[in-house]
């Protein structure tokens, strides 16, 4: 049995402790050795060296290293020291790629540290019958702890005594209202955490009252520690883009090995020199691998991150940009994410006038009087400091005080004009609070509290109608309190409940809600238009959650709302079958949230989870992308999330999704652009060796094209503006490949066209001058220039006449710079010598330029003929 469901004496007996004496010093020492310090286990982190070495597991990187080794061996057997430039350049590229990968993956694992920092630094305990102040990490099971308003709770504990005790547990449960505690209760087994009124929890704080409790769990055994364990268990998964690029890398690697093997066999059969065969194999390996691809994807994603910062979204992991754009389900916490995380008094009913009003700054005199009386019966306060409103105390009370203040009755003014003479503090059994104030020369008893508790003590008023109003207000997610009053002749010195809380006149009702953020309705509507399913997951009550979900458009006709208890009854098969029809999950635990996320993932959906509390952290990490709130969010949530919303605005998610979709489209364009070049290079080298036994491009030239000439336009393609209609399309399926909708076929065909043009250029240069060097120069100029002009084709599937030839200023600059760099290594003799290039007759330069423009013309014709369709 759980500690909250056992009799209190049994709990104390099992822990070998004492209500009054606590543990002895010796017992405490023994248990500290047995259970360890009361802190969370630190997660072992990877060193930068480990991350750096892990980058060399990639097939493409291993092939490049092999190419560098072969090139180095060839250089050692040669007589020209310049031959060492090639293997050194390949190694520099490999190391730079590894460094960039290491930096990208060196994200700080803040979740565990933040959880640790939430632990209380000190604790008040009873040991050997004496009250002591000790370090919180020295607290052990069986310790008797003392807590009061404002204290952080150092460990999970069963209450022994409680006096008007309320605990702020929103970080664990998601509820915005402090939980009322009662030491006398014995809770049924398997009750949700938010319903365990006889327990207090590590990492939470005392909002009101005081208590004495016996520690039942410390460190990793606490509820907070359980969440920390879940965080440890949820490993970082690769995003779809990472998975696709990793798969692509393997395919390209195997392609390079296969083609090299074929060339090696052909070379041996034809009697070619072994060193020459090796150098050709190196050229093929270099041509098959898009060396700049990892760096370019990282740069494009980084550009997207900078754009998102302007949209109030901070990305913690670069690939999360692409994943967010693919999101098809957004599971959102209610408190602080969809709502404002502040109780607000929105409706009031005055019984005397039979008047129900929405609260404003200028309410009727009757409603204003009701608010004044309710405010007088509150201990919470509201202050305005530097123009900012600060709520101090119980959120329900401060919502009443603030409503009265807005109506011209600040708490301090009321307290001065109508002084409090005596009181009966709030009690969780009575669910009432009573004060006696001097109002206009009379002693007035004012009682506020739950309507069910007020009903039997009010003798004046239409309570039947009041009950109907309470039911109506509650069904609309309002938390309802009743207010009653009476006049007495004299104030008793030691007032009793019977004296004050009887024969009251029912004055009215006040209704509070944690209101929805006003902008969320539009954001939800945009999500639905974009084919994204919004789901509410909360620790709050199902009635409240359903009402808010319907108001926001999250819950529609035919959708269901279920509780954590109902979810626990479902098998995995049943949940997977019903998950698409459930829009609201209420009273759920951290494990439930992970289960919900994984049920959606099992349907092939890409799941985004938003939240702000500690209880959200495991699900944030389990989701394909976690979004934490930046203002109200805990450090734990931010540490577990991939993205933080700096304005806590749900609409920011929509903006981020739009940006993510645009960036994914841009990355596809950049990848297609680069791979078209690589396929062209492989076919060029392979076919030339097959028919002419000569490589038309040296590995140095191929590296220059892949890393310099192609990289600049590819990055510029990544900066293309997001299309206006991108949020009118459905999310792409999770299993959709990066080459879907015929993109792979188009890349191969375009690569074949580049190879044909390059081979023609090689033959033309070699044939007209009689030298292989001239043929290679011609081949280099044709292929390099072709890619520069082809980049303009890759901006969109629409014609350049529609998108505009020069509307991407970044591509204009990149193309100009690439052409200048091509000219530099072609026309500057020392550079030309290093890259194996030579001077050509003038007309061949013009011919190379003409050949380079052919793909632009061909693809414009294909677009006009409808052979290339628009798929983002």
From TrEMBL:
InterPro entries from the UniProt entry: ATPase_P-typ_cation-transptr_C, ATPase_P-typ_cation-transptr_N, ATPase_P-typ_cyto_dom_N, ATPase_P-typ_P_site, ATPase_P-typ_TM_dom_sf, ATPase_P-typ_transduc_dom_A_sf, ATPase_P-type_domA, HAD-like_sf
Major enzyme class: translocase
Keywords attached to this Swiss-Prot or TrEMBL record, sorted alphabetically, are: ATP-binding, Calcium, Calcium transport, Cell membrane, Ion transport, Membrane, Metal-binding, Nucleotide-binding, Translocase, Transmembrane, Transmembrane helix, Transport
Can you name one GO molecular function term for this protein? ATP hydrolysis activity
Q: Name one GO cellular component term.
A: plasma membrane
- GO BP annotation list: export from cell
The compartments listed are: Cell membrane
Q: Where are the transmembrane segments?
A: 59-78, 84-103, 251-269, 281-305, 670-691, 703-722, 743-766, 778-794, 815-837, 843-862
- EC number per UniProt: 7.2.2.10
Occurrences of domain Cation-transporting P-type ATPase N-terminal (ranges): 2-76
- Catalytic activity annotated for this protein? Ca(2+)(in) + ATP + H2O = Ca(2+)(out) + ADP + phosphate + H(+)
Membrane topology qualifier: Multi-pass membrane protein
Pfam families referenced in this protein's UniProt entry, alphabetically: Cation_ATPase, Cation_ATPase_C, Cation_ATPase_N, E1-E2_ATPase
What SMART domains does this protein's entry cite?
Cation_ATPase_N
Q: Which PANTHER family match?
A: CALCIUM-TRANSPORTING ATPASE
**Annotated family:** Belongs to the cation transport ATPase (P-type) (TC 3.A.3) family. Type IIA subfamily.
Name this polypeptide is given:
P-type Ca(2+) transporter
Query: What organism does the record attribute this protein to?
Result: Eisenbergiella porci
């Amino acid at each position: 049995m759980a500690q909250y469901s056992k009799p209190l004496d049994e709990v104390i007996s099992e822990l070998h402790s004492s209500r009054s004496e606590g543990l002895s010093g010796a017992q405490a020492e023994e248990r500290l050795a047995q259970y360890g310090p009361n802190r969370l286990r630190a997660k072992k982190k990877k060193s930068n060296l480990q991350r750096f070495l892990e980058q060399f597991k990639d097939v493409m990187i291993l092939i490049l290293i092999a190419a560098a080794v072969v090139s180095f061996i060839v250089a050692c057997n040669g007589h020209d020291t310049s031959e060492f430039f090639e293997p050194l350049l390949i190694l520099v590229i490999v190391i730079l790629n590894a460094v960039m990968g290491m930096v990208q993956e060196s994200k700080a694992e803040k979740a565990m540290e933040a959880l640790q920092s939430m632990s209380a630094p000190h604790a008040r305990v009873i040991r050997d019958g004496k009250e002591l102040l000790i370090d919180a990490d020295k607290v052990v099971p069986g310790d008797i702890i003392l807590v009061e308003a404002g204290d952080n709770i150092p460990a999970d504990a069963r209450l022994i005594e409680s006096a008007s005790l309320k605990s702020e547990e929103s970080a664990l449960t998601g509820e915005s209202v402090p939980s009322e505690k009662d030491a006398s209760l014995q809770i049924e087994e398997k009750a949700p955490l938010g319903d365990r009124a006889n327990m207090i929890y590590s990492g939470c704080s005392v909002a009101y009252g005081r208590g004495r409790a016996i520690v039942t769990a410390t460190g990793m055994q606490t509820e907070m520690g359980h969440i920390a364990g879940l965080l440890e268990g949820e490993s970082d998964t690769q995003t779809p883009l990472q998975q696709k690029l990793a798969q692509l890398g393997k395919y390209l690697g195997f392609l390079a090995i296969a083609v090299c093997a074929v060339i090696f066999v052909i070379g041996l059969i034809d009697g070619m020199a072994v060193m020459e065969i090796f150098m050709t194999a190196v050229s093929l390996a270099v041509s098959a691998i898009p060396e700049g691809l990892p760096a370019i994807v990282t740069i494009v994603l980084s550009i997207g991150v900078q754009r998102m910062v302007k949209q109030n979204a901070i990305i913690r992991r670069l690939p999360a940009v692409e994943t967010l754009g693919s999101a098809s389900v957004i599971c959102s916490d209610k408190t602080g994410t969809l709502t404002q995380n502040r109780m607000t008094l929105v409706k009031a009913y005055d019984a005397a006038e039979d008047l129900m009003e929405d609260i404003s700054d200028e309410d009727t005199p009757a409603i204003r009087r009701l608010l004044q009386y309710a405010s007088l019966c509150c201990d919470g306060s509201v202050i305005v400091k530097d123009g900012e409103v600060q709520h101090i105390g119980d959120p329900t009370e401060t919502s009443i005080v603030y409503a009265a203040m807005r109506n011209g009755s600040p708490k301090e003014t009321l307290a001065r004009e109508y002084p409090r003479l005596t009181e009966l503090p709030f009690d969780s059994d009575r669910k009432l609070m009573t004060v006696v104030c001097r109002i206009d020369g009379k002693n007035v008893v004012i009682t506020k509290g739950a309507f069910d508790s007020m009903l039997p003590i009010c003798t004046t008023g239409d309570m039947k109608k009041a009950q109907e109003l309470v039911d109506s207000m509650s069904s609309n997610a309002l938390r309802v309190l009743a207010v009653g009053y009476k006049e007495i002749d004299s104030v008793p010195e030691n007032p009793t409940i019977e004296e004050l809380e009887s024969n009251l006149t029912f004055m009215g009702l006040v209704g509070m809600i944690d209101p929805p953020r006003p902008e969320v309705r539009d954001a939800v509507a945009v999500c639905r238009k974009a084919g994204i399913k919004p789901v509410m997951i909360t620790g709050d009550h199902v009635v409240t959650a359903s009402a808010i979900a319907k108001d926001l458009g999250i819950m529609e006709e035919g959708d269901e709302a279920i509780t954590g208890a109902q979810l626990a009854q479902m098998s995995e098969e049943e949940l997977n079958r019903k998950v698409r029809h459930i829009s609201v999950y209420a009273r759920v635990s951290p494990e439930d949230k992970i289960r919900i996320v994984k049920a959606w993932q099992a349907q092939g959906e890409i799941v985004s989870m938003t939240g702000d509390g500690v209880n959200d952290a495991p699900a944030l990490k389990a989701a394909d992308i976690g979004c934490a709130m930046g203002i109200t969010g805990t450090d734990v949530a931010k540490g577990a999330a991939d993205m933080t919303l700096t304005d806590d605005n749900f609409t920011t998610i929509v903006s981020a999704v739009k940006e993510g979709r645009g960036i994914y489209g841009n990355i596809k364009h950049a990848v297609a652009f680069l791979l078209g070049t690589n396929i062209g290079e492989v076919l060029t080298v392979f076919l030339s060796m097959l028919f002419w036994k000569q490589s038309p491009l040296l590995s140095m030239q191929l590296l220059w094209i892949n890393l310099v000439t192609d990289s600049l336009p590819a990055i510029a393609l990544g900066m293309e503006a997001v299309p206006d209609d991108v949020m009118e399309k459905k999310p792409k399926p999770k299993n959709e490949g990066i080459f879907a909708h015929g993109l792979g076929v188009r890349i191969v065909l375009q690569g074949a066209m580049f190879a044909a043009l390059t081979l023609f250029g090689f033959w033309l240069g070699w044939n007209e001058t009689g030298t292989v060097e001239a043929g290679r120069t011609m081949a280099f100029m044709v292929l390099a220039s072709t890619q520069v002009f082809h980049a303009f084709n890759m901006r969109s599937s629409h014609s350049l006449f529609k998108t505009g030839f020069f509307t991407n200023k970044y591509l204009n600059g990149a193309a100009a710079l690439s052409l200048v760099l091509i000219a530099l290594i072609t026309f500057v003799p020392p550079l030309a010598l290093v890259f194996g290039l030579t001077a050509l007759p003038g007309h061949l330069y013009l011919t190379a330029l003409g050949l380079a423009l052919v793909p632009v013309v061909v693809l414009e014709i294909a677009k006009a003929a409808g052979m290339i369709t628009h798929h983002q």
